[in-house]
Amino acid sequence: MKKRMLILEDGTIFEGTAFGSDNASIGETVFTTGMTGYQETISNPSGCGQIIVMTYPLIGNYGVNRDDFESIETAVNGVVVRELEDEPSNFRSGMSLGDVLMMKGVPGIQGIDTRKLTRILREKGALKGMLTAAGDTVSVEDKLEDVKAYKLPTNLVTRVSTKKAYPSPGRGERVVLIDCGMKHGILRELNKRDCDVIVVPFNTPSNVILSLFPDGIVLSNGPGNPEDVQVTIDIIKELLGKAPIFGIGLGHQLLALACGAKTVKLKNGHRGGNHPVKDLLSGRTELTVQNHGYAVEEASLSGTNLEITHKALNDGSIEGLKNTEYNAFSVQFHPEASPGPEDANHLFDRFTDLMKTNNRKEQLNA
What phi and psi, each to the nearest 5 degrees, are found at residue 42? Predict the structure, then answer.
């Protein structure tokens, strides 16, 4: 078995066994708390540029199947687990996690103390890290200097957004989905409601989007710092008031920035399932799926036309907003789940109802 190291920028080194690709990689090391859903996690474009630490101790036991990918290609830079199951047992399994990572060129490390690693990340926040081969010929000091010198990329959305527009036809409302790193689950939920969806790149000009005659616009999830995607923020500003808008994940943050608010980086971020969120409008608490490292700054909402609709019960951070002037709302979590609880799935119904109501108003005013 080949040996591999995880070298963190603070000088902490873990040595374990390699699996997946033989490639070395550098990325932002973060942890996710889901007990299941590793397939969706490694294929979620929001994880682009990250080395993902799975806190659950046994990963890979039910394998990987054809149906649960959230994108065609994996976006993560590496996977860290306590124990990897090489012989999965599930009737849906088509391949082991290790084989998938090998095929996709993603390195992994197993056999390290992921509890200790998670405690370090909880204390210090996300850290830059490197997955690299271990051995007498490896200069740990040189590798550590490479990690420290590494600058986190600012073009992550460019990497994962579609390069060309494409349709996902339906006979219902026309939705233009701005792809900043879209999970397929969002598209599935819109298709379930018979929406006629056109997926467009993150930098599609507003006049091109409006020429598609949208009944509504969805801003997808995606990776990285929302302030790095100024082109999309400017596009959203031009789209406000033209059609109902629904933002998810990064799309929530971009909508907030377009309306004059600010975003901040969280120390640890929220990643995994079963995060409790309170809907301030209904008083209901919902368990949600989350995957984000940034949040909207509450103090920055003063002077904007944004109103808080959802709050995280764990840390009080903003999880949902609505624009009081325009038909626009957003949530930080993932109502499409994939994986995780589907408590907030009704938000897609809210969006389709908003499009239908808006269309009726336009017809009456015509």
Answer: -75, -20
